[in-house]
Amino acid sequence: MELQEDNNLARVIVVTSGKGGVGKTTTSASFATGLAQRGHKTVVIDFDVGLRNLDLIMGCERRVVYDFVNVINNEANLNQTLIKDKRVENLYILPASQTRDKDAVTRDGVDRVLKELKQRFDYIICDSPAGIERGALMALYFADDALVVTNPEVSSVRDSDRILGILASKSRRAEQGDEPVKEHLVIARYAPLRANRGDMLSVDDVIEILGIPLLGVIPESSSVLQSSNAGVPVILEDNSDAGKAYGDLVDRFLGEELPHRFLTVEKKGFLRRLFGN
Amino acid sequence: MGLLSYFRPTPQGSAAVAKERLQIIVAHERSGHRYSPGWLPALKRELMDVVRKYVSIDQDHIKVHLDRKDNYEILELNIVLPEESNIRKEASSIREESSIRK
Predict the structure, then answer these.
(1) Which chain B residues touch A185 with a CB distance below 8 Å?
(2) Chain A residue nearest residue B32, CA to CA
(3) A128 Cβ contact list (under 8 Å, min separation 6)
(4) Mutation test of the interface with chain B: which of A197, A203, A263, choosing the one with the most B Cβ atoms within 10 A?
(5) Across residues A168-183, what is the average pLDDT?
(6) pTM above 0.80, yes or no
(7) What's the CA angle centered on A260, arms A255 and A263, to 5 degrees?
């Protein structure tokens, strides 16, 4: 990794949601992997200090030596800390600290590390912790783009709306009066059958309530659990609906216009739901 | 017809209730956090003073709500006036006043 001059095109993208367990880390892992697969130098940072999990989802938990806090405190440099993905070129992981105090992540520290990363990478993905506390605010503060991960369920939608409010008021772009953080809606764990029956908020319902453009819909799928069991980002599972949906999502983020798939009921999907788990 | 509607997916499931509840709570919370400019309370006070010149109302009877949609903002003003006979009287007197001014 050679140092370049200031890379102004590097984008910082936060993956956030407010609510926990909706698919932030799954989305961060697959999104980063997808960008790297398509040739972009990508790093994904785990901001969940104390509860690191991105390493497990990415399957590199046994290769963690140093962490984000070590870099912030100048106890280790990026070359020592970044974990290079073994499957995909151009992909690096910056793990969270498992032991440190959350206060160790300071705004100036994050700013410095991000500036350094911007010289080496095209995309910097920030996997936010749940909630709206310090860690979550830190993850979104420097963002240029935000992937707001939402499940079609009341508490998740409400929390996503709160996060949108925070992006619009507490991000650096908001504070400095720059162009606002670009918001992208990611609906995860979507079950078309239940939505069609009127038992689940539909994609259109969620879009109407949150009022931000839709980037992708990830169907509820047993392959998400299977791939997390194996430590493989689900986007690498070419045969799964969720993997294909993440692939489409990445292509759309990069500017391709693709129709949304997996929004309608398929017989196969129904049977898989019956016998899948 | 009855048979057809039986097979058609009903949009009246629990999702419809969820959507309605969400729309209300999200609009409420946005007015508190997301889209609440600093001048909104002052506007409400002044509006109330103006309305009170003509009709006697309580604080609860006036609701000011600002919403943002795409590229425009909607200022929603809801004033509940007391008894209908009063309103007519008041309204007509206001109308008279304005025609005199012309």
Answers:
(1) none
(2) A165
(3) A14, A15, A16, A17, A24, A47, A48, A135, A136, A139, A140
(4) A197
(5) 92
(6) no
(7) 165
